[in-house]
Amino acid sequence: MPDSTKCPKCSSLYGYPTGTSMMCPECGHEWNPEEAVGNTSTTEDSDSLIVKDANGNVLQDGDTVILIKDLPVKGASKSIKAGTKVKNIKLTDGDHNIDCKVDGFGAMALKSIYVRKG
Length: 118
Description:
- The protein has one helix at residues 33-36, and strands at residues 16-17, 22-23, 30-31, 51-52, 58-59, 65-67, 85-86, 90-91, 98-102, 106-110, 115-117.
- By secondary structure, it is mostly beta strands.
- The strands form 4 sheets. Strands 1-2-3 form a 3-stranded antiparallel β-sheet. A 3-stranded antiparallel β-sheet has the order 7-6-11, with no helix packed on it.
- Strand 9 (98-102) and strand 10 form a beta hairpin.
């Protein structure tokens, strides 16, 4: 089987043509078969995690963000107020895609829809 039909992201053998590109039915990855031939490394793994804030700006590890909404915290008597600045974030996969430390609350995970780049 030619390498151009093998998915460069998940190595699935069931890639199918979509006109000008190839599509993987297992992971949903789309690629150009001319660029994938002979390329066995998966360099796109670092680019696959794209996290955007509430305004649509792309976030990166180490960014500073500002909360746009009061967020209640389970087990705490008070909520995190809107306008709180959070420094040095770390992006993760999942529903809560930002790991950070909030002053006065400690380490926690936040959803990117409640922050803006600051």
